[in-house]
Amino acid sequence: MAELLLALDVKGAEEAIRVSRACEGELDAIKIGYPLILSTGMGIVKELAKSNIPIIADFKVADIPNTNALICEEVFAAGCSGIITHVFCGSDSLQAIVDGAHDHGGRAFAVCEMSHPGALDFLSGANAERMAKMAKEAGADGIIAPATRPERTEILRSIIGNSMKIYSPGVGAQGAQPEDIKKYVDGIIVGRAIYESADPGKAAHEFRLRAL
Ligand code: O7M
Q1: Which residue from 58, 75, 168, 180 has its CB within 8 A of the most atoms of ligand 1, so it is best to mutate?
Q2: Annotated binding site for substrate
Q3: What residues are in contact with ligand 1 under a 6 Å CB criterion?
Q4: Interval 11-24: pLDDT, tens
Q5: Which residues are recorded as binding substrate (predicted)?
């Protein structure tokens, strides 16, 4: 049984609130990222969090440890309960995010293998496996691994074990189905197939049932 995370990559507060309200009761978390935050500012987090849903900041952080720690301070002060980081900047940068999240009572997730075709250039294969080991060693709460390549996500699961979560994008618009991936992961991340739907609440409900 996998959770359902909405990738709320819409622009503007009005649209974000419309979609999130329509999906109320169907979601386990909302993932926000640059499209929403650059169009609204971080104030949207407190607005969305009013419905008591965890908000995960997908900033795919990739910087030096000090900057990563400063980013964590802002993300958690804004009301987020999780943050997503890249791993390829190295173990010290990764550790700054994990420690920054935990110091603020939040969770840290590490991108290990991406879902799009271009991920095969770098963010896959042996690199991804190495990054999964690094995420485990750093004490991250979970990793991001692709629904579009379930066989790869299965390998990453074998590296991190069952005590860490896997959240998996690629379901819906990128072609993967919940049934392809749910047995390997703790949550599926769905964006366009929900927020571009004529009835986002109904679409979320259907994805939630299919992820069970
Ligand atoms: O369902 P979509 O394709 O509209 O949206 C997928 C979301 O997942 C979108 O927010 C992407 O930025 C994100 N994502 C990927 O699609 N692929 C990845 O490999 C990683 C992510 C992600 O969420 O990383 C944390």
Answers
A1: 58
A2: 9, 31, 115, 191-192
A3: 7, 9, 31, 33, 58, 60, 84, 111, 114-115, 144, 146, 169-170, 172-174, 189-193
A4: 999 999 999 999 99
A5: 9, 31, 115, 191-192
CATH code at 188? 3.20.20.70
**pTM value?**
0.98
Whether ipTM tops 0.85, in short, is yes
Burial grade of 2 (CB within 10 A; 0-12, 13-18, 19 or more)? buried
Q: What residues act catalytically?
A: 58, 60, 63
Interval 56-74: pLDDT, tens: 999 999 999 999 999 999 9
Instruction: Quick: pLDDT tens for 91-105.
Output: 999 999 999 999 999
Nearest-atom index, ligand 1, CA of 109 = 25
CA of residue 29 to ligand 1 center, whole Å: 14
Nearest to 6 by CA among 212, 198, 196: 196
Distance, CA 118 to ligand 1 centroid (Å)?
Answer: 13
- How far apart are alpha carbons 77 and 17 in whole angstroms? 20
Work out the percent of the chain whose per-residue pLDDT is above 90: 99
- Count of domains observed in the chain: 1
Find the domain containing 119 and state its range: 3-211
Structure tokens at 30: 């909302």
CA of 97: how far to CAs of 73, 88, 112, 113, 154, in Å? 10, 13, 15, 18, 25
